[in-house]
Design brief:
6 helices; 230 residues; single chain
Length: 230
């Protein structure tokens, strides 16, 4: 009886830890999107307000120039908001599956950044042929790749990133490698990105390994395919 009670208590503690991790990760993601909206969207809207106010006070050629600048602000902000909506929840992930969503993600990064990104997806359930991975696995893999590429762009000064996603021994395995400046693995990582990736993978019973040196950084995750028909 004592052993059974201990097992139940341990299982409950693990479940509670996972719930706390999920809440913590969600709160940090909301905080990050809030900063994105504050630093980009609100500043652009403030600039738009200034341009429109200037247009009201001007006449002739000056008014026309102010209106053109205001229209340029609107166009940039429409694109930024469209990108933000896609980052929050890409339609391709819901409609077409993991393979299509990853290709669209890589294409967006390649268009915006001066770096080469190579993608290799080899999944029996990529979504291309109608077969789909369980939703929680698709979302986990997509979000980890998304976060890893974001870190590469922001911090690594890399010229090349390689994303590989495949299946090994009833697991979905994804690796993201870059040729950037890496980091010191002996220093504990305090940023949201690494913690968020590890927490997200652990919540679906997977493992996340992040290594870095002067030759770049490698993120590798392995997520079990339990719950699928494989």
């Amino acid at each position: 009886a004592a052993s059974a009670a201990t097992a139940v208590a341990t299982a409950q503690a693990v479940a509670d830890d996972r719930v706390r991790a999920a809440i913590s990760a969600a709160d940090r993601e909301r905080a990050r999107w809030s900063r994105e909206l504050h630093d980009d969207t609100l500043q652009e809207l403030a600039a738009l307000n200034i341009e429109l106010s200037a247009a009201l006070r001007a006449d002739g050629a000056k008014r026309e120039e102010s209106v053109r600048r205001a229209a340029s602000h609107v166009q940039r902000q429409v694109k930024a908001l469209r990108d933000l909506v896609t980052d929050l929840r890409p339609a391709d992930l819901d409609d077409l599956g993991l393979g299509a969503a990853l290709r669209a993600l890589v294409d967006r990064h390649a268009d915006r950044e001066n770096m080469t990104i190579r993608l290799d997806v080899r999944l029996a359930h990529s979504g291309d042929d109608g077969e789909r991975l369980p939703p929680e696995i698709e979302t986990t893999v997509y979000r980890v790749v998304q976060e890893a590429l974001s870190n590469v762009v922001k911090h690594s000064e890399a010229t090349l990133a390689v994303v590989r996603v495949g299946e090994e021994d009833a697991n979905v395995v994804a690796t993201i490698q870059d040729d950037g400046r890496g980091f010191d693995p002996s220093v504990p990582a305090q940023g949201f990105g690494m913690r968020g990736m590890r927490e997200r993978v652990e919540l679906v019973g997977g493992a996340c390994d992040i290594t870095g040196d002067e030759d770049g950084t490698t993120v590798r995750i392995s997520v079990p395919l339990r719950g699928s028909d494989r």
